[in-house]
Give the backbone structure.
Amino acid sequence: MDRALLAAIEDGLPVVSSPYADIARQIGTSEDDVIGRLKRLLGEGVVKRLGLVVRHRAVGFDANAMVVWDIGDADVDRVAEKLAAQPFVTLCYRRPRRLPEWPYNLFCMIHGRDRRTVRKQIAELNASADLEGVPTAVLFSKRCFKQRGARFSTANMEPAA
Amino acid sequence: MTDPSLDAVDRRIINALQGGFPVCERPFDAAAEELGIGEAELIARLDVLQDSRYLSRFGPMYNAERLGGDVTLAAMEVPRERYETVAETVNAFDEVAHNYARDHRFNMWFVVAAEQPERIAEVLCQIEIETGLQVLSLPKLEEFFIGLKVTV
């Protein structure tokens, strides 16, 4: 039943007064059951969030930078906590290095209105976590070729790239 | 797609509902009350916003790993003159959820997500075969928590 529920809402919630009752009818259960299940799935983190997903560019967030660093494995958690605490950082992940092509293991996403502001924020970020001299790269996005909220079969994703 | 400009109420709606949407019998009523508007107005505005270019979706964000699926971030170094063709090849896979051009030697970055974890490797391998280019796979090893939210 959890799977049926997740599949029923993957493309979006019905925008009607009692959306959970609509979904319940669709999958053959009660509104209470749908509400209970959704609350549990949110609590367990299977559903990360329920709500609006904005297209950053359309709402004026034209500058989207992926900032990456090569941080010593022993320091990465400590540094990441500092970076993640900055309000303009929207995602922060540790990922594997792929040597020799890709030496970076810590990734942050910053969404901002323009590149100048984002560059300033990156400087602040480096200062806040004492990262002067650490190997780093800034990858601004130039164009988004595909941004869709994915299917259940392929998982609804955070804009991780 | 309709393309209205956002007024102050639209902006408040977007800012508030990015963080979360109530799970109760009359969720729009509850959300509308928080926003100081009526349920009918919220529903009407969301109807319009949903079809606008501002929103990609109104619904759930799943944790693929928790569902038994898997996700990775992939990067490719694509020669400029082949960029459009390679983008078409990559985007043709249902498993590819986002694809961004970035200004770096690795200039194409996309997310691959699949319900069957082994499907990820298949897709990446297929992309390498079809394009003749190397694909770096950089799956998430650890996530540091932040609420994803922009103020419009």
